[in-house]
Structures are given as C-alpha cells and as structure tokens.
Protein 1
Amino acid sequence: MAFKLPELPYAKSALAPYLSQETLEFHHGKHHAAYVRKLNELIAGSRFAEMPLEEIIRTAGPGEVLNNAAQHWNHSFYWLCLRPKGRGKPVGALADEIRLAFGGFDEFRKKFAESANSTFGSGWAWLVLKHDGSLAIEHTPDAENPLPRGEKPLLTCDVWEHAYYIDYWNARANYVEAFWNIVNWEFVAANME
Ligand code: FE2
C-alpha cells in the first residue's frame, strides 16, 4: 500500500496572487511529492508498510520515517486549509471558540501570525483543539505536528521557506499576512466537529 500524492482541490493558479502557480508547482509537485516518494521507499517491506499514515506518525519515533510521514500528512492537511477566495472569517461555533480562547478574530490572527513568524527555521504554525476542548496556537519545528500529543489540528500554515520564497523571498511575515486571504474556514470549522 504505497502512499500517493493527493491532487490539489483547486487549480495550481487558483491561489494567486497570494500564492503563485509556480510556488504550487514546486511546493506540491516537487517538495510534497518528494516526501511521499521517500516515505514509500523507507517503509517498503517494513512494519510500517501496511500502516495508516496517522499510526506511523504516532508510533515511528524520531527519524526519517517519521519526518517523511509527518511532512506528507502536514502538506496534505495544509492544501485543504487553503482555498481560492477564502471567506475571510470564521463563523458560527468556530468563531465563538476563537473569541473565547483569544478574545476575538483579530487577536487570534495577531497571535497566530506572531507564532508563525517567530518559528526559528523551518516549521509549522497550528491552531489545535486540545484535550480539554479548548483552542490553542502552537508551532512545531521541521516536520513535527501535534498528532503524537493527541491534539487535533484545525488549521496550519507551512512556514518552511519553500512555502513562500518564490513569491515573498525572505519576507515570511508578508506570506503569513497573505495567508489569511486564502484560508478555507469551512474546512477549519469541520475539523472542530
Ligand atoms: Fe512545505
């Protein structure tokens, strides 16, 4: 059972001008594809070969298998967090929970951006649902994600340079600012249920 690179649920040009077609061609077609290829090479014939992706991430422990499995999961999730012309704001229960946890949507955006921008080197910013049902902002280095802690990711922003360098060069903060224009809040809300 080899893992497959998922198709994007939109055209590679659809997230422009916030993310260009060229960025998606490299990020999805080269970087994400390479994680999937490498993962399949690593797990062939191993105890991971028939394991669901989440189980590999929860059980593999530090190393190449975990890194490539988590990067496959993280990117698959990231693509679904995005959509052309995101609606701009969460509504309903998600909006209520964000208000409860962070004081409001603007405060949440500010704190999430601070987390994304302060991640040293490569990593990911997350909005997660914690064990007690509350929302939290986290950032993880490199390939790490919140799954091994048993937390439920609701939203992520990839802050590896490969996510933004073609469009924003070294200005990660501009990429994170643009990110808000293409967030799929319906997907985020569905993850909370
Ligand atoms: Fe990435």
Protein 2
Amino acid sequence: MRIDIITLLPELLKSPFEASIMKRAIEKELVEVHFHNLRDYTDLSYNQVDDYQYGGGAGMVIMIEPIDKCISKLKSERNYDEVIYLTPDGETLNQQIANNLSLKGNIIMLCGHYKGIDQRARDLFITKEISIGDYVLSGGELGAAVLCDAIVRLLPGVLNDETSALTDSFQDNLLAPPVYTRPASYKGLDVPEILLSGNFPKIEKWREEQAYKRTEERRPDLLENSEN
Ligand code: ADE
C-alpha cells in the first residue's frame, strides 16, 4: 500500500510514522508513506495557498490551484483508489471504513486548514470525505495520522500476532473484553479465576460474554446495528 499525504504542516504529521506500529510497517515495506507540502505547488509570492472567502466572512480558504497541481502530479505518476479529504463534515470514521481502506492499493489524503478548501476542489478531486469525530481540529493532519494508524495496523504482516487485529474492539460490532496480566493478585485485586483455569473453550465463552456485557453497558448503539 502507498499513502500520499498532502499537508501544509508536514512537521506536525511525521512523528506518528517514526514510532511503533507504523514505523515497523514502513520498515518492513508493507506501506510507503509520502508527505507533500502544498506550499511547494503554488506560484504566488510568499508561497501563498489560501485566500479570503467570496461573500465575506471570517477565515481563509485553501485555493484550488495548488491542490490541483499537487494531485495532478501524483495522478500522473500512478493510479489512486481513493482521494480522501479529512474534514469535520465528512463521514465519521469507524472500523468498517478502516477495514475497507486497508484493502486499497494507493490512497491520497488531503489535510485541510482554516475554513477548509475551495468547494470546487472537493467536487473535482475528492472521492471520500472522512471526519474522525464530531469536534473541530485545527487541521486535517491529526485526522490523517489517526486514519493511517487505523488502516496500517490492519495490513497483513504488520501486527506480530496476525489474529490480534481480529480481536480488536469493533471488529464484530462488540467492544473488546477486559484483559489482565501478571501478577494474578495485586493489592487484593484478583484476576478472574476462569482466566487461570487453562480451559480455553470456557475462557473463550467468558470473553464473549464480557464483550457483550461491556458493549451493552457502554455502547448499546452498537448492538442495535448488528445481529449479535
Ligand atoms: N479537520 C478538522 N476537524 C476534523 C475532524 N474532526 N476530522 C477530520 N479532519 C478534521
């Protein structure tokens, strides 16, 4: 998989890709991530990429031309499956969207800033608009980092234990069950007996029950939308 991220602030984005799972995925060549600074695609003085909005109102809008130039250059080099714009008015990210995107080959992610980007750029180039939640960030960079992390950990070979993404919360519309590690007893708090029993069918059943219980308590909406 190849991900091209178009941003005004590449430095804000880089560190999540230089640590942990995403770093390992890049080192193992399971994913390539490339950053493109929109300011490299403008001919205006001071590398201007934004301007006042027509009709008046507070906030600057990113102009279509640098977006066009950057995306057109990338598209001239290879085909892309999706051109995603990170925006609070996009479709809210969930596990299903991450699963689908993890099956793609080449993806562009465009990060907005200020009041957003000229609507014509959205109409012309964007195939998918994604929000990471109902709150407004200063720009799309953190959203792009979140989206990349959610996708990259699903790529085959990225996680050590390949089944571990399958047991994540949301993969079956249930939250994950509680987990424990050593010591078996800490300040009077004991690990549930069943987990020490070695009876794996029973442990599996307990985990399923706990996942269901936790989902019922915390996210009953997930149960309404599934057949569990
Ligand atoms: N840009 C600003 N806010 C955002 C959000 N909630 N999700 C994705 N991109 C954004």
